[in-house]
Amino acid sequence: MLIxxxxxxxxxxxxxxxxxxxxxxxxxxxxxxxxSLIAGAAGAAVIxxxxxxxxxxxxxxxFSTDEAPNSYEDITTxxxxxxxxxxxxxxxxxxxxxKPRPWSIDVSGHAEKTGTLDFEDFMKPFDLEExxxxxxxxxxxxxxxxxxxxxxxxxxxxxxPTSKAKFVAFETLxxxxxxxxxxxxxxxxxxxxxxxxEEATNPLSILAVGIxxxxxxxxNGAPIRLVTPWKYGFKGIKSIIRINFTSSRPRTSWNxxxxxxxGFYANVNxxxxxxxxxxxxxxxxxxxxxxxxxxTLMFNGYGEHxxxxxxxxxxxxxx
Length: 319
Ligand code: MTE
Description:
This protein is an alpha+beta fold.
């Protein structure tokens, strides 16, 4: 994964986040008539992108953190989505015309129910929940994101995997016409990820379809992406078109690209350094350019929910 260049540092990190939001609100105040203001956990007003549809019937979740979420601007303009380019602001700039509808998801493999479903039909059986989660990127930066999503455990149960299903594999759309980055060989496309069936059915795992109560923007993985908050962000595969229940461990994009640097499990672990940098600390996006880095927590602070999944596994070897 590329290391951040000075050109990627955005104004929201130089200005303190609150001042930055206030200034944006002030600038936008005249332009927005009747636009909804959503109060973030920190009490900061955040104006969602008006192109995104409001989602309804969202339940709160006991799994949400009470840490202050990052601004909508941070979350939607500082991204990794190599299908739209490798720079942090490329996805925001290059995914604008991407069409997340019509969209279908193919469910295959060792399950009683399989087939290709329209996104709307895929979503029907499931309840929407808000999950405010920390996200720790393997590049040593982090954010707090108020996702809206569905429980992956519910999705897995719905399709009734058989006893042969030990893993769940995911794939992203691979469309060079719409995704300019796919025309370059930065990765072996399509982007692929996978979880063990136990990880996929852990209550923390979700498929996210929204941010800040509105449908998820293209650059964050519209219309649906994986979120596993105890793992490095690269496990959170975006714009999913395929879910496959497999008996063997699926190949995953970053592990294929650099197996010595990126493992299959990719659990956040401050004591296992990346070969090129330490994972002990992280820079919280929006905390200001000169703010101290904060300590990275084992399993990104979600150990009470997930540590049991890795009992007896050597996490230095199985990183
Ligand atoms: N999914 C696809 N299809 N392509 C990508 O390049 N990047 C991953 C992950 N999912 C990526 C992807 C990485 S490295 C990170 S850190 C997160 O998405 C970033 O998610 P965000 O941009 O919503 O913060």
